[in-house]
Amino acid sequence: MNASDSQPDLPDQPDVQPVSQFSLLRRRRFWPLFLTQLGGAFNDNFYKSALLMLFTYGGIERWGLSIDVINNVVAATLIVPFLVFAPLAGQYADKFEKSAFIRLIKIAEIGIMLLGALALWLNSAALLLLVLFLTGTQSACFSPLKYSILPQHLERDELTGGNGLLHTGTSVAIFLGMIAGTLALSFSGGRWWVAAGALAIAWFGWRVSRLIPQAPSSDPELALHGNPYRQTRRSLACARENTMVFWCIIGSSWYWFLGSIYLTQLPNFTRSVLSGASAAVSLFLVLFLAGICVGALLCERLSRQRVEPALVPLGAILVTVFGVDLAFAGSAFASAHPAPGPDLYYSVVELLQRPRWWRVALDVALLGVAGGLYVVPLSALIQSRSRAEHRAQVIGAGNVINALFMVAASLVGLLVLGMLGLSIPQLFLVVMALHLLISALVFVRQPEFLQRFRQRFVSVR
User: Fold this and answer.
1) Among 56, 93, 99, 356, which residue's Cβ finds the most Cβ atoms within 10 Å?
2) Burial of residue 229, with CB atoms counted within 10 A of its CB: 0-12 exposed, 13-18 middle, 19 or more buried
3) Is the CB of residue 136 less than 8 Å from the CB of residue 80?
4) Mean pLDDT over residues 275-300, rounded?
5) Confidence of residue 126 (pLDDT cuts 50, 70, 90)
6) Which of 49-58, 209-218, 231-240 has the weakest average pLDDT?
């Protein structure tokens, strides 16, 4: 079944009997893809976290490089494949039947994890980085498939709920993968736990992927390009055919910019601004993740089961409110509660006893909620407004722009903190100023966002 591809949703229509998005978890047209995606997201982060632990604690040769440099190498190893391979995979996803393509990718994941087990046995840093690059490549190839197949298996009024579930599940899988990869190496024989766990998850993903229903080719006559540059240009041209789709991609990429900034800076924000111990970092990450999940799952209810542009300005406004307040709340806490001493930090229990900490914690959680409200409708709009013939190529173009925005986030952090010497709260304020500019640009260039926001949330009925 195909959702209509290029027509905007009609203004508010009489409400129908609501059906919970969670009912999709019982339907074969959704749950096998959902579990397949969860396994892949878990494995990527499970392996990456284990590799970082090996580099950080000296379990493997670093070629004389500092851990900060190694962290950047690992990040680049995961981002570069999205720049190169996502557009190429998008054209194959448009040309061929998608479920078979997904199964091929999951078989490749099993092979990659076998190579990872060999790399762990040989204790080869170069081979481990190659495996990490291959996992990034596999993810880059899977991304256009998982998002372009949704409109073929879901009705239009299920797209927002389906994307909310997929975003929530992926966020949880990423977090659990990070924790599992970190913990695995704290046990005796941890490397073999990593090798066996990654293989088991890859095998599970392949088994589940066999249950994904067929999704016929969108454009069997599509001419394939082997040149990544030429295909990227073609994918970007497809994305620009529909102005709403293009600006949704820009907005979605901005979400990944914000996510990169906050996830990168939260650990040091906790240590240097709040003087919190390492356990407090984990608590903040849990709050941020829980907020994203709540926001993503709220989208279906707030949109009344429509693909609703009005949620995007709502999310953008809330991001601004809680992002600005987080900067001020962090500074206020630091002024009221200086560090207990050199190389001494407040425990989680000590932080919980300080009222100002609760304001910071609430800002972190609600910033996650706002992010979920912001990004899920953007994904649903990209899927519903793209032409079916090149939907996967459009998503591949979006992956390229996402990756560029994530690189830009690293450069902005380096510029503001390193070269300008500003504090992390000041960085958060700079980022919120950029957020206002980007949001204004998107909403001015695509007025439908604000029109629907006024109709949905402002107009008196």
Assistant:
1) 93
2) exposed
3) yes
4) 92
5) confident
6) 49-58
Distance from C-alpha of 424 to C-alpha of 253, rounded to nearest angstrom: 22
Q: Do 172 and 267 sit in the same domain of this protein?
A: no
444 in a structural domain: yes
pLDDT, tens digit, 9 for 90 and up, residues 223-261: 999 899 999 999 999 999 999 999 999 999 999 999 999
CB 350 within 8 A of CB 277: no
Domain limits at 52? 23-216
63-92: pLDDT as tens digits:
666 666 676 777 888 889 999 999 999 999
The CB density around residue 349, as the number of other CB atoms within 10 Å, is 9
Is there a single domain that holds both residue 252 and residue 174? no
Q: What is the pLDDT of residue 77?
A: 86
d(CA 385, CA 374): 17
Query: 273 and 199, same structural domain?
Result: no
Q: Total domain count for the chain? A: 2
Residues in the chain: 461
Q: C-alpha 364: how far from its chain's center? A: 17
Say if 202 falls within a structural domain. Answer: yes
Tokens for 202, please give them: 């890859």
Nearest alpha-carbon partner for 132 in 38, 187, 50, 35: 50
Residues 193 and 325 in one domain: no
Which ranges constitute the DSSP H helices of 274-310? 278-303
Residues 167 and 282 in one domain: no
